[in-house]
Amino acid sequence: SSFLTEVTVFIKRISRKTDLSNMAKTMRRVLNSNSKVTVLLSDLRAVVNQGFLDVPGNLFQENLRNPEELQNNIELKCLKDLMSLLASSTDIRVLLNCMASNLQAFVIQPSSSKEELRKLASDFQLRWNFLLSAVSKAMTLNYADSFG
């Protein structure tokens, strides 16, 4: 039984590495093409600015620009920061550093214990996944060129 558990864990790890590898290859193709990045940014801005996202209370309304609201919507801040960077840099290290800085500021530093860190990290991951799913859905339903 414990052998079967180890096999299952191993298979999941291999699957994750394969998924990450495929994602990295796709991202490399997109980030190395200025025209693809331009189209992607245009599609993202359309989804965000035209309110196509099917999320409660439309997280992307302009009135969420004050610091208190952004503090409560760090996934929104992360996405907007990444979009801003994409206009000038497609270096994956720059994009990852941006994400790491936001996580440091909004998840890691505010945590006073291991339990609080787990909760904040788990909450962020859930909201981030939800947001990215909403963006993908909106881009797909609106026939975004970057999703062709």
Explain the overall architecture:
The chain is mainly α and 148 residues long. It has one domain (1-147). It contains six helices and no strands. The protein has helices at 2-31, 34-49, 67-72, 74-86, 92-108, 114-141. α4 packs antiparallel against α5. It is globular and about 50 Å long. It starts with a helix and ends in a 7-residue tail after the last helix. Residues 56-71 have low confidence and may be disordered.
The number of distinct β-strands equals: 0
> Nearest-angstrom radius of gyration?
18 Å
Q: Average the pLDDT over all residues and give the rounded result.
A: 78
Quaternary organisation: single chain
- Which band does the percent of strand residues land in? under 5%
Please tally the helical runs, counting DSSP H or I stretches of 4 or more residues: 6
Termini, distance in Å?
A: 45 Å
Low-confidence stretches: 56-71
GO molecular function: DNA-binding transcription factor activity, RNA polymerase II-specific; RNA polymerase II cis-regulatory region sequence-specific DNA binding
InterPro entries: RFX-like, RFX1-4/6/8-like_BCD
Domain RFX1-4/6/8-like BCD: 5-148
Protein name: RFX8 protein
